[in-house]
Amino acid sequence: MDYHYEQTSEVEALDSIYYGDMKILETEPYHKFSIPIMSEGYEDGGEGLSCQLTFTYTAKYPDELPIVEIENEENFDDVDKNQLLEYLMEQGKENIGMVMVFTLVSAGQEWLNEKWDSMKREKEERVLAKLRADEEAEQKRFEGTRVTVESFLAWRKQFENDMGIPAKREREGKDKNKLTGKELFLRDTTLNESDLKFLDDGDAVKVDESLFQDLDDLDLSDEDDEDYVPGQSGSESD
Description:
- The chain is an alpha+beta fold.
- The chain has eight helices and four strands.
- A four-stranded antiparallel beta sheet has the order 1-2-3-4.
- A hairpin with a 5-residue loop joins strand 1 and strand 2.
- The longest helix has about 45 residues, at about 100-145.
- It is rod-shaped and about 165 Å long.
- About 10% of the residues are buried.
């Protein structure tokens, strides 16, 4: 195989295909050139993946793989360019014995398209997942926590402790043990019995008659009697 002829012919064909984009970097001892590749839509919106593939022929190319380098990567923050390089090498091995630069460029561009589509899907999934999480959190905020018997009892105990209710109940319990005089009287039946016994036991009451004056010594007149009627006497006389 005339390697020089094969290499020169391929360079001329590539320059025609990628006119304006392909750059010849060296011609001796072997051709070295670069071709940009990018995912679809990159030029329109500036979003996507882009890089340059730099090829260097070897003495026995195309019976040997060319030297391939990846340069000037754009938006490769989440992309491992070594994965792209390994993929290109695998494609090259399948084309040993044939000029392969066009095949490798096409394969590289397709790899960028698939990678970018995958990145966009992952981004959209993350956004959707966040939206769902936010919606669920919002719903839970309105729904509140599901109440069970155990959780309600625990809440009530904490609430009563915070409000000082147990201490208040304890004070009220102590106050209930203190009876008023009326309550003591109603509760102690012996007091009732003692009063009744006092009333029934009239003979046992002693009256000191000396405390009273002789009724004859009192100056009483009929006018002091509320029932007195003038002209009438309480005694039978003419």
